[in-house]
Amino acid sequence: MIHSLFLINCSGDIFLEKHWKSVVSQSVCDYFFEAQEKAADVENVPPVISTPHHYLISIYREKIFFVSVIQTEVPPLFVIEFLHRVADTFQDYFGECSETAIKDNVVIVYELLEEMLDNGFPLATESNILKELIKPPTILRSVVNSITGSSNMGETLPTGQLSNIPWRKAVVKYTNNEAYFDVIEEIDAIIDKSGSTVFAEIQGVIDSCIKLSGMPDLSLSFMNPRLLDDVSFHPCIRFKRWESERVLSFIPPDGNFRLISYRVSSQNLVAIPVYVKHIISFKENSSSGRFDVTIGPKQNMGKTVEGVIVTVHMPKAVLNMNLTSTQGSYTFDPVLKVLTWDIGKISPQKLPNLKGIVNLQSGAPKPEENPSLNIQFKIQQLAISGLKVNRLDMFGEKYKPFKGVKYITKAGKFQVRT
Amino acid sequence: MSASPAYSEEKGGSSSLGEPEYGHDPASGGIFSSDYKRHDDLKEMLDSNKDSLKLEAMKRIVAMIARGKNASDLFPAVVKNVACKNIEVKKLVYVYLVRYAEEQQDLALLSISTFQRGLKDPNQLIRASALRVLSSIRVPIIVPIMMLAIKEAASDMSPYVRKTAAHAIPKLYSLDSDQKDQLIEVIEKLLADKTTLVAGSVVMAFEEVCPERIDLIHKNYRKLCNLLIDVEEWGQVVIINMLTRYARTQFLSPNQNESLLEENPEKAFYGSDEEDSKDDKPDAASLVKRKPYVMDPDHRLLLRNTKPLLQSRNAAVVMAVAQLYFHLAPKAEVGVIAKALVRLLRSHSEVQWVVLQNVATMSIKRRGMFEPYLKSFYIRSTDPTQIKILKLEVLTNLANETNISTILREFQTYIRSMDKDFVAATIQAIGRCATNIGKVRDTCLNGLVQLLSNRDELVVAESVVVIKKLLQMQPSQHSEIIKHMAKLTDNIQVPMARASILWLIGEYCEHVPKIAPDVLRKMSKSFTGEEDIVKLQVINLAAKLYLTNSKQSKLLTQYVLNLAKYDQNYDIRDRARFIRQLIVPTEKSGALNKYAKKLFLAQKPAPILESSFKDRDHFQLGSLSHLLNAKAVGYQELPDWPDEAPDPSVRNVEVPEWTKCTSREKRKEKVEKPFYSDSEGESGPTESADSGAGPGRLCAGQQGGTAQPWQSFHGWRAAGSCEEEEQEQVKKGKKKPPQDEGKGGSESSWEEGSVSESSSSESDSGSEAEESQSEPESKRRTTVRGRAGQPGRGLLDQLITSQPQHVPTAFLPPSAQMLSPVFSTMKTYELLHRMAGEGLSVEYYFNRQPFPPDPHMVAVQIQFSNNTESEVKNLRVSEPKLVSGMRIQEFQEIESLAPGDTASVIMGIDFCDSTQAANFQLCTHSRQFYVSIQPPVGELMAPVFMSENEFKKEQSKLTGMSEITEKLTLLDKCQSDHTIVQRVTAAANVSRVPCGADNEYRFAAKTVTSGSLILITLEQKEAARAHLTVNSEKMVIGTMLVQDISQALAQ
């Protein structure tokens, strides 16, 4: 299975290594660097590289390459999924999964890696168990540690590993018992030149923050569960209950976790909340072009569209852009050729517009394709699919928890072709 | 999260502790002396008495290891602390030890005794971690100690320790492969473990140590299938992959017969039930097609139990299930995985990359599966190039006549992309679409021709190459395009493209006889200014023209060759000289000259454009080898399906005769006796609640006093009594029909009443009661007499006389009247064997009674017998795991069942007119058993009464597709009316329909769930031949029924 792991930053430094079997020399990473060079772009480094004696499977997260060394046949997704789980754990422990965070907590990181794999096979990947084994750094603890010289290693023996519900710690106590659910839906769409929808679908997740004492057994039901076409579950959810009654029944992990992710059935038409009018043109034999984009709300169900950001990857030939915006501010990165227009809220009375001149490199041929516009937005208090949580019931504990549900709709991969 | 504010603090804290002295300091690693000195410092700290100092030192050392720095010279100082009281220090020492023990073997031995002590600790977690570290120390000398520790841990009380033992097995194996035999013993032992914690780890060990020992799995197969859903996610992946291989060696291919069918119907069939409906129907259909093939229940078990895992959040699990379905499921069922795989496309780009590669392979074989998700593969300009190219591959594989126009429209947008590699790939994709789909070939060609004017060299070159390939397939039809391309030579400057055009004109100069010499003329004019590759092609063109059209081009050729003779490039000079010798006849030119035409104008095969993912599916999907398209180290080949299924009984856990039907006859007899005797006793009180008329009416073959298994039904009886009345009507009707026969009108009105269960008939039921009670008795007597005349039917007779009957056979012609009502088909099936059920044995049969609470359900009579020493309590059904649409009406919980006692209950199952099994758990107060009931197709229907005319009318509506006919030969013993009717009604729950002709038999029924009519006609021809026809809109049921009946008649 997984032999070794190297963490490599963008400048090509190997800043952490961990071996679960015999040590593999760092030089194996040269193959990776070679592939990286060939790919030119970090996104295009092939995740699986074959070398004469090893296979390298890598992921790229937060400007760090997680490169694992494999010696024998193993499902590549197994490794990739695990590496992402490692990155998620770092995120969970240190608040961010960055090179500095890892370097500053190198001992914890090393201990975590030690616990997560045994002889290359995953052992404990549930964050609740890991936190029992190795305490995440907190203010209080680091102060105490510096005085007493103790470490973050758990003093008690972890019992979670033995339990039937490995995702939940045994003894949990809160003074305020709360359960929050965020229903977050993202609209993935491709809009073509004329404004008609080529492809649109809704992908949703329910992220939960559960702070409940003891062993609560929750069941969450929806007003319209039929909307959910394809669902993937956190392991805590009882599958059979969902199959028969369309109710999410589970003993939750403690803290933050993703309860389900779902896709809304593709038969339902997706309401696209914004529209874009655009004129982008480059004149033949001239070193300039026109850029004029207006964005407006549409079918927003009485809610305001906010947090609107338009990102455009301009053609390579673009030198710079002179634009004026009626709302928000824009920046153009002349190196990456990326135009970012941060609009904020859209008010239907006065539609935000950005227009002006595009300067091209003189002598460069006219770009053939107009760049596509990537749009981000947010709508609070609305689940665009119409999904509604009906009720949350708790069994197994006496107290009355505070419950809350929040809906939010965002743009996912929302692209307008021009 | 509270972690984020804490982090900054911690950052300060930890760096103040450890950082300044090494690590970031650029000078530190480089200067050896300072390095050495610092280690001295660490040694001192490790030797001190204070735990805090030791801990500090260990932290620094671990940090060094993490950064890849050598800390091996500290080994002696560190290893001393292995017995340190402080658990934190200890843990860090373990970390160090595991890393360096291999390099310092002798010193490492000092620590072994500590772990050996740990192995005996009363705390399971300490035992486990001691074993974990001990097995991680890669020192060959301790192999015997490890072996001993593993063996001991494998029988530890704690499942966690056993799990650790399983993890230790591959470690020991990699250290010393001579231990294999002993390790296999341990694996065998651990495989038998029933806890979910161990299952994943031991299968992992199995895969690493002895993947070839498939025989170890037999006994554990069912257990693994059932545990699967509760195993942790990583274990699931390993188990599923292993079971895929296992299933390939043990079961027959579910698609073996389908491959014999032609492509087209197959596709249509497949396309029609794409998504959700596929669970029941197609499966049934495929069951029909393979005559002798019935899916092994264990095979089905695997498919059923893995399906929910498609909803896992872990992409690796989803992929594992997907490949399992791809490799093992009947074609029609594979579709379920598409949805889940498409979901994974939303995940991280690495996951996308892997999934797309697998989808690409799958989409070649099973295109229909992904067609509904076509749009999910549309490309965004922000996708990384490697993802774009894979999506393009999938889109191309999915292209067919119907969707090609949408796909081409998409491709048009892609062609204008800024990402040139991607554009090139798109052009290739268009080429492939054009070769695969003849309809759009011209459109594609025109589009590509337009691309020739693109500014980008890569695009033009790619288009020319693709056009060239396309033209090669049918040049005669495309002289227009060749002409067009000839014109392009004026504008196009890209040398590669010019060269390609020239080659084309030369190759097909016969199709453009006028233009070719002209092009050559133009080219010879600009010859000196051309690029080298173009010049070579000009020479080529000249040579070909000289051979085909020497009149017009002789001089031009001479001119070009002369120009080339003095070219700067020696390749060109060489080529010119060579060609001149070859084509221009002189005295010196040898034999080759004669063959010049053959040499130049030989038929060149058109290149084949096909996916690079073709045939990749011989690698197990989802594997590393599949991804690399090369065998990776340690890859276990996915075996081909066996021709003959190996003995399925090897998977039986305790009792070999578990498989059905081996000794059914005997068992039936044995079982049924206690059943009745028991029910008699129990029935007493409840019976009285019911009307006295009940038993007699219900069971034609029984008398009022005879016990019958309806006790538990009583709860429903009140509600369902009207149905019973109707049955009475049936009997009443029996008297009339002989006279009424042929008069369709009056009968059909009656029939309506009975089918719709109207209560109108209830009114006269009272008066009929008497009659009906006396009648069956006499009938029974005659029956017994009649049957007794037949030799060798003793057993059946026994059944007939003792079993309750409900065979509603109205309107029988006189000859058959006495036979039908007594006919029995109560085949008993085993639900839970006595051994498997730990003393509780359960059997069931289809009693063919309507199920009053829900007319859409099939009634299943279940009989429990308690063979244990103790009472079994709270017998009930729980957690039905049903295919969508199926429903179960559970029976009332049986509070307790005394030892040696039996009880019987009735439950209703709505099978949705499919032969899919209903799975559920049978729970007792202490245990639960997974059981499943699979109905024979004949039990999915209820008899219908109709007249001959009615029958004919309905039959005429159900022709064509809905009619299934089979020819069969009736055996001698199967010639008599009696046997035929009996066998047909045994095979299916149907009633006989009167018929004028005496060589014809007709039967009618309706499916229980949807109420679709099923009409059966058996026509006897001369010489024992017969035609069996089934008319029904449910074609699947129809075909299966034909099979069943002809089998019943052939026995």
Automatic annotation (TrEMBL), chain A:
GO terms for molecular function: small GTPase binding. It is found in: Golgi apparatus; Cytoplasmic vesicle membrane. Keywords: Cytoplasmic vesicle, Golgi apparatus, Membrane, Protein transport, Transport. PROSITE patterns: CLAT_ADAPTOR_M_2, MHD. It comes from the Eukaryota. Belongs to the adaptor complexes medium subunit family. This is AP-3 complex subunit mu-1. It comes from Chelonoidis abingdonii (Abingdon island giant tortoise).
From TrEMBL, chain B:
Signal peptide: none annotated. Residues 746-764 have a biased composition (Low complexity). It comes from the Eukaryota. Residues 664-675 have a biased composition (Basic and acidic residues). Keywords: Cytoplasmic vesicle, Golgi apparatus, Membrane, Phosphoprotein, Protein transport, Transport. Its main location: membrane. It is a peripheral membrane protein. Residues 791-916 form the AP-3 complex subunit beta C-terminal domain. Pfam families: Adaptin_N, AP3B1_C, AP3B1_C_2. Belongs to the adaptor complexes large subunit family. This is AP-3 complex subunit beta. It comes from Chelonoidis abingdonii. The gene is AP3B2.
